[in-house]
Amino acid sequence: MIRFGGTYECEHSVFWSSNPRVLLLPAGYDAEWFDDVHAALGLQPPPVVSPDARSGLLVRDLLQDGAAQAVLRKHLSGCVQVNLTMTGPTPDVYLLAAMLRGWGLTVELDGVTEEHYWSSLYLDSKVSCLDLARQLPGVLVSDGLIVDNWTELEGAVGVMTARYGRAIVRSLHGVAGNGTLVVKGGGSLDTVAKDSFFTFPLVVQEFIEHAGDVGCPAVDVLVGEDGVEDVVLCSLTVEDGHLFRSVNVGQDALPAVWAQRVDQVAHELGTAARDLGYRGWMCVDCVAGADEKLYVTEINARRSGSTHAGGLLRQWGAERDLTLSAHFMVPVPEGTTYREHIKPVFERLWASGVRAYPTTVRGVGWPDPIIAVIAAAPTAEEAERIVAGIREAVSPAAAPGNAS
What we know:
The protein folds into 4 domains: 2-110, no CATH class; 120-127 and 211-309, D-amino Acid Aminotransferase, Chain A, domain 1; 143-206, Dna Ligase, domain 1 (2-Layer Sandwich), CATH 3.30.1490; 322-402, Alpha-Beta Plaits. It is 35% helix and 26% strand. It has helices at residues 2-9, 31-41, 58-63, 66-75, 91-102, 117-124, 127-135, 150-164, 190-194, 256-275, 307-316, 338-351, 380-393; strands spanning 23-24, 48-49, 81-84, 106-109, 144-147, 166-175, 178-184, 202-206, 216-224, 227-239, 243-250, 280-288, 294-300, 323-331, 356-360, 370-377. It has an 8-stranded antiparallel beta sheet with strand order 13-12-9-10-11-14-16-15, sandwiched between helices. A hairpin with a 2-residue loop joins strand 9 (216-224) and strand 10. Helix 2 (31-41) packs parallel to helix 12. The protein is globular. The relative contact order is 0.12.
């Protein structure tokens, strides 16, 4: 799942920054798409390095590919200092930094240093939320139990469902809702046996009833030496109470009262993360409770899937003016191609001044074809409407004049 998701979503890094840069992308990206989105953004396409795919892990593949390293070194010739901008810290990233330093370059990491790498692992575990909630008065988590085997799991689920009606079972790590199960009293726990993210220990918590018309609040937090340096508000769309589908990013992503609560939690958790040695972007996921309280569900100690939206807002200087809606798994009909069916739709939008982009088209040739799309507008509702129009228009059966 991580190899799949990482490869599919890596192209979102195209939108992180407009600074002079070299991009490291897995082989197989669409070069025409790459040139088109940069032209639409008014940017020159940067050079790209794509190592031979061996492990499915991008940086590890680069470290094993001397030819790709030579290409990267050529692109960096003449540079004195480089900033290593990463999705999140891994041991391989620190090896890459060491290799660049071996070439005589000064390397700045835009995330946590190797000395404090442990803090990213700790924060990324759902247990960290439970710990921090005991220390920070403004951070709430739902009632729960930590279990270490099947006997404890069945007993804990029985107690929590009897007490609250529904419980949510969480693995300490998961992706896009995988590793999470919502269960009613007497419900099946078969998913726990089938989902590879479910490994003990597990957290069994009260399922918080969601407030209507809010979505699941989230926030991207930039942690620096002096604490929280930036906060980007988000609202996640989920299905079945936990499966991630899309995210709205920006000032209109949340109602004002919830935005205030999320901002407060972001500063509390960001400061706590700084005190643990963490630096760089992290994401905090929450639930807006029907009881009008904000509950923290997890911390992702890395860039989130919405980071490209925040990057675009900063590039445009539109943090207070625009909201973006990012959809990661937009289904398209079998036979869809970028050149014939996707590009014409976006060219008409760009000609009309609409800020909407296909953020990856790598999945068009898969058995269940998908693309990722992002759109910007003054309100979240308008941005979502643009995405809905794109979803309708991108089809081999759609006539050229059908796109709106």
